[in-house]
Design brief:
Layout: E1 2-4, H1 11-18, E2 24-29, H2 34-39, H3 41-46, E3 49-54, H4 72-80, H5 89-92, H6 97-111, E4 112-117, E5 126-129, E6 132-135, E7 157-161, H7 162-165, H8 168-177, E8 183-185, H9 187-196, H10 203-221, H11 238-242, H12 245-261, E9 263-266, H13 274-287, E10 292-296, H14 301-308, E11 324-327, E12 337-338, E13 341-342, E14 353-357, E15 368-369, E16 374-375, H15 377-387, E17 393-397, H16 406-414, H17 421-428, H18 434-449, H19 458-464, H20 467-476, E18 477-478, H21 482-488, E19 499-500, E20 504-506, H22 519-527, H23 561-582, H24 584-607, E21 614-616, H25 628-631, E22 643-645, H26 651-671, H27 681-695, E23 705-708, H28 712-730, E24 734-737, E25 744-745, H29 754-761, H30 768-771, E26 781-784, E27 799-802, H31 809-816, E28 828-834, H32 840-853, H33 876-888, H34 893-896, H35 908-920, E29 931-935, E30 944-951, E31 967-973, E32 978-980, H36 985-996, H37 1004-1013, H38 1021-1046, E33 1065-1073
Parallel strand pairs: 2-3, 3-4, 9-17, 9-18, 10-11, 10-14, 14-17, 19-28, 20-28, 23-26, 23-27, 24-26, 27-28, 29-33
Antiparallel strand pairs: 1-7, 2-5, 4-8, 5-6, 6-7, 12-13, 15-16, 21-22, 24-25, 30-31, 30-33, 31-32
């Protein structure tokens, strides 16, 4: 008898001597590893036969259903140990697995038979070679042979000869081997499993092996409730059939987020069809008998109503959707009718799902104001719809969920967790609370936004944001940009986006009359206006103020009457500028209206003799004077008028101020009196553009033009002049849509409602053949205000003119998004912008002068505030950069926002990808580690290798910065340069997906080439070298980060963990890019 301690003497050394030519080897053990075969390859080649018994059920055909598989996990690890156990990682990282597996499978076919225990009885492991016995033997791996230490404190093996134990073990083995009840033969399955390690793999398979490993915990987490339940049959619905692949992905993701977190923000960029995506989600919930409310801006109601109505132009009428549609503003109303719903009786608390279109209108959060504690829309939505009654899920749609503060996002998300952060914190499983996460993100963002322009890159921001912040976004938002869709989806069935031609910028002067006024002179006169007509309460005598204390109109933050008047004065002053930029005609109207108001008021003061003249403040009843966003401010949704008794006012001073303004306005009016349409240079420039476009179309035969303006007065003026010009010169028909009243068209008898006009203007995208089958009326020129700048699809048109530049650059992009859409039939599209006749810097400075002069103490408003308002303290540089860019190119919204794009952040689509795949392919669970395949390089993906690794000593999350810990991905080029490091898993997964998606077969040519270069996987030195480089890059990147974190607030990550090197990582799979 002999004791082998596996330190000084090893089992391997003994076996090397014992195994002779013709030996018979019998082993009963828990597992078999190809690396143990590799160690004894030479000796094993000579033996007669190997008989191997798996001492626990392994590779047998399952008689028990998978439901009762508590034994399943250890079994999987036994079966996987064919490709090396966890202690043989080092060998696997040498990447020769493929070559070894091939030789081993070949040897088994000739020499070995495997059987497995099928009972639940325990069997102890031992091994006999001819007449010698070794025991105990746990498995046949390099650890059991003594080549590796494993995690054994000691591993002593006794070797005895048969004369010592009376051949006990040899007989025992024979008896077992022939017991058919206890054993089942599994040789073929073992061979098949080993050969899995050297088959050529399809790129798609490798991509899913990576996903499976990275996200398999997520698979365990999901309950069937959170996944779209196929049984509801919503995948057979009409709407599902109409969706593009990227929209379907979004629908499934949204449903799973709504189930899990109760809320979701869909922030796909302009022109990607958010409405349809949302309709499919609604269909899913309606099939489950839930009631749904859609809240949208009034101008989009027509769209939403069409999709649920039994109308011929409703492409999804067959789905019979039945949601309710209300407007954002209805939340401020107590009674009356809206969109056919009686608000008095409406059971607000009974909605299971609320879909909020253009949800950024709710980004300012909740406020209570006034004595009667009126709630603003946000709170009303929160309290009446979401918190009360049934549990309400919230889906928010918005292309711009973040204006420039992360708090915008938080306010919208708060709707999903009922404003009670504890609900969300529990579900998120982040280390910090949601409030803390946002506070830190905002802090990082503020630091970032102060960086000089060239350093202010998205990557820089991503690097400084917290891991938890991404987790949060990942959990509740879905955001894809155009670029993302073009890059990661096969867009052949969708059609391309049209090519954007560089924008044309025109700067016409005011008029061609000699000696006439120019912009700058008008501006200086405007600066001298005081507009006190809008602020009467400033003139109430101090002794009388008490009488008017509770004059509040506003249901936002408690804004006094005085604050409100200041707000209106501010708006009016800016509005004068905006209208001057829009058109002389609008400007003239506004001046005349203002003058009329002032004259009337002066008259009232003059008439005042007795004490009984009450001033009726109907200051701004006519909202048509304002552009779309300003009309949304709460000043215009307020109820009662305020009356001030003139006896309580210092009306003498007030009158003096009013007369000054009246004089200046008179002067202005005279100065622009002779600018008629013939002498309106801007209008004439527009005519030239139309002429050019018709005579030289940019797409053959396309004559369509959209002209956007911010004001309905300008639209009226244009319609009057352009329709004549277009009809007389080119016999084109023109229409105007302003959203306030029905439109106008030059086609007699054509109904001028929004839908008909848009259908005749964009017949293909709006389905005219279905809607108006008998009409051949076609409109070619459309003049519109921003009432159609969101949510309409007018892609038949290829030419869009902004007759005035909106102060909010996002608006310009949204307008362009009407024609810049996926699947457009036009090859190219053109954007034309009219700028005021002055230098851009001058222009922006002017705006800021007006802003600061009119700076007001308190003003809150919902809707898009002007982006340059006083709160945003001079980020003018930034606007300037944006407007400059808009002169040279058409940008995507996500490139506009000051770098906060929530596009680059989510990993959810990969999880859903995996789920979909797992439904058809369960076998991925048994895939060997260390597989690889070869794909072709692309211009973005240079030749090299993408490694997917797992960190074995789980303690290491290299400073909480890696979102897929314990997995690490690194993309390294052939030259050893890091193409993309482990801190950006989203980009790496995107790249892998792009390289592999849709390739269900191995790339034969490339695989052959790679095999020739590596001698069928025997000479993997180069790749192995790259692997250690890749692992070093993880460690280096960690060290750099640690050093950075020593000097950052929020603690250091330097002491959190240590990563020593190659042996800390196991290779899951790798993708060779050739």
């Amino acid at each position: 008898m002999k004791i082998i301690d596996n330190v000084n003497k090893t089992v391997k050394e003994n076996l090397t001597k014992d195994l002779q030519k013709g030996s018979r080897l019998s082993i009963a053990a828990a597992c078999f590893s190809i690396y143990a075969y590799q160690e004894l390859k030479k000796q094993l080649e000579g033996i007669d036969e190997l008989r191997f018994i798996f001492t626990s059920p392994t590779f047998i055909t399952e008689k028990t259903p998978k439901a009762q598989r508590e034994f399943y996990i250890p079994r999987i690890s036994r079966e996987r140990s064919l490709y090396g156990t966890e202690f043989e990682v080092k060998l696997r990282n040498e990447l020769t697995q493929k070559a070894i597996a091939k030789e081993c499978a070949d040897w088994i076919r000739r020499k070995a038979v495997f059987k497995s225990n099928v009972t639940q009885e325990q069997m102890m492991g031992f091994m006999t070679v001819d007449e010698s016995t070794y025991m105990p033997i746990n498995g046949f791996t390099t650890v059991d042979l003594g080549c590796e230490r494993g995690n054994n404190a000691y591993y002593t093996v006794m070797k005895t000869e048969s004369f010592e134990n009376a051949s006990h073990y040899i007989k025992l083995f024979e008896q077992l081997w022939n017991d058919k009840k206890k054993l089942q033969e599994v040789t073929d399955i073992v061979i098949e499993n080993i050969s899995a390690a050297y088959r050529e793999n399809a790129p798609e398979y490798i991509y899913f092996v990576a996903l499976y490993n990275i996200f398999k915990d997520f698979l365990d987490d999901i309950s069937e409730d959170e996944l779209p339940n196929e049984a509801t049959g919503f995948k057979n619905s009409k709407i599902w059939g109409m969706l593009y692949n990227f929209q379907r992905d979004a629908v499934l993701a949204i449903i799973s987020k709504l189930e899990k977190f109760n809320g979701c923000i869909l922030a796909d960029s302009v022109g990607l069809g958010k409405t349809f995506t949302a309709l499919a989600v609604i269909k899913y919930y309606e099939n489950r008998n839930k009631s749904v409310l859609v809240l949208c801006p009034k101008k989009l109601a027509e769209n939403w109503n069409t999709y649920k109505g039994n109308y011929i132009n409703n492409p999804i009428a067959a789905d019979r959707l039945r949601y309710d549609v209300l407007y954002h503003t209805d939340l401020s109303r107590e009674h009356g009718q809206s969109n056919g719903i009686d608000l008095d009786r409406l059971n607000w608390g009974n909605y299971d799902l609320v879909v909020i279109d253009e949800s950024h209108n709710f980004r300012n959060g909740g406020e209570v104001s006034g004595e009667d504690a009126r709630e603003n829309r946000y709170l009303k939505l929160m309290n009446r719809v979401i918190r009360t009654g049934v549990k309400t899920k919230v889906l928010m749609l918005s292309a711009t969920p973040v204006n420039n503060k992360f708090i915008d996002l938080k306010n919208q998300l708060a709707l999903a967790y009922e404003g009670d952060a504890a609900q969300m914190n529990q579900k998120l499983g982040t280390t910090k609370s949601i409030d803390e996460i946002f506070r830190q993100a905002q802090k990082a963002f503020n630091v970032w936004s102060k960086l000089p322009n060239e350093e202010r890159t998205t990557d820089e921001l991503l690097r400084n944001l917290d891991f938890d912040f991404f987790e949060l976004l990942d959990s509740v938002t879905i955001a894809r940009s155009r670029k993302h869709i073009e890059k990661y989806y096969n867009t052949s069935d969708i059609g391309e986006f049209p090519e954007r031609l560089p924008p044309i910028s025109v700067r016409p002067c005011l008029t061609d009359l000699s000696g006439a006024i120019n912009y700058n002179e008008i501006y200086s006169l405007l600066m001298s206006l005081n507009l006190t007509i809008y602020t009467p309460s400033n003139y109430i005598m101090p002794s009388k103020l008490a009488k008017y204390v509770d004059m509040t109109h506003h249901k936002g933050s408690s804004l006094t009457q005085r604050g409100r008047e200041e707000g209106i004065r501010h708006l009016m002053s800016i509005n004068l500028l905006k209208r001057l930029e829009s058109s002389v005609a609008s400007f003239r109207l506004t001046i005349d209206r203002m003058k009329q108001l002032i004259d009337d008021t002066i008259q009232t003061i003059k008439n005042y003799q007795s004490g009984d003249c009450v001033l009726d403040l109907t200051e701004v009843s006519d909202t048509d004077d304002f552009d779309y966003d300003d009309q949304n401010t709460d000043f215009f949704t307020v109820g009662k008028k305020v009356k001030i008794d003139l006896a309580d006012m210092d009306h003498i001073s007030w009158k003096r101020e009013l007369e000054k303004d009246a004089e200046n306005l008179e002067l202005l009016s005279l100065m622009i009196a002779d600018i008629t349409p013939e002498h309106d240079t801007k209008l004439q420039t527009l005519f030239d553009l139309i002429r050019q476009k018709i005579e030289h179309p940019i797409n053959p035969g396309n004559k369509k033009i959209i002209i956007f303006t911010a004001f309905s007065d300008t639209a009226d003026y244009l319609f009057e002049n352009v329709s004549k010009f277009a009809k007389e010169n080119f016999s084109l028909e023109t229409a105007e849509i302003t959203g306030t009243v029905d439109g106008k068209t030059t086609i007699p008898k054509l109904r001028a409602d929004l839908n008909t006009v848009l259908t005749c203007f964009s017949p293909v995208s709006k389905g005219k053949s279905v809607l108006l089958p008998r009409s051949n009326d076609e409109l070619d020129v459309l003049i519109a205000t921003d009432c159609i700048s969101e949510g309409q699809n007018l892609q038949d048109c290829d030419y869009l003119i902004n007759y005035d530049i909106h102060w909010n650059p996002v608006r310009i992009i949204q307008r362009f998004g009407r024609i810049d859409r996926i699947g457009s039939k036009n090859e190219r599209i053109q954007l034309v912008n009219f700028w005021p006749d002055m230098d851009l810097d001058e222009y922006i400075n002017l705006k800021s002068r007006v802003e600061t002069r009119m700076k007001i103490s308190v003003m809150t408003s919902t809707g898009d505030d002007d982006l340059i308002n006083a709160e945003e303290k001079g980020d003018l540089e930034y606007r300037r950069a944006q407007l400059k860019r808009l002169q040279e190119e058409v940008v995507d919204i996500e490139d506009m926002t000051s770098g906060i794009s929530i596009m680059d952040l989510g990993l959810n689509e990969f999880r859903l990808d995996l789920l979909e795949y797992m439904k058809q392919h369960g076998d991925i669970e048994t895939a060997p580690k260390g597989l690889h395949t070869v794909v072709g390089q692309t211009e973005d993906s240079p030749a090299g290798v993408i490694f997917v690794l797992r960190n074995i000593n789980d303690s290491v999350n290299i400073d909480n910065r890696n979102r897929i810990h314990p997995f690490y991905m690194v993309y390294i080029s052939e030259e050893g340069e890091i193409v993309c490091d482990y801190l950006n898993p989203k980009k790496l997964l995107d790249t892998m997906r792009l390289l592999c998606r849709g390739k269900g077969e191995p790339c034969v040519e490339l695989c052959k080439q790679f095999n020739d270069e590596t001698d069928d996987g025997r000479k993997m030195g180069e790749i192995s070298e790259l692997l250690s480089e890749a692992i070093n890059s993880i460690i280096d990147a960690k060290e750099e980060n640690d050093i950075d974190s020593l000097f950052k607030s929020g603690g250091t990550s330097a002491l959190l963990s240590a990563v020593s090197g190659l042996d800390d990582f196991e290779l899951i799979c790798f993708l060779v890019v050739k």
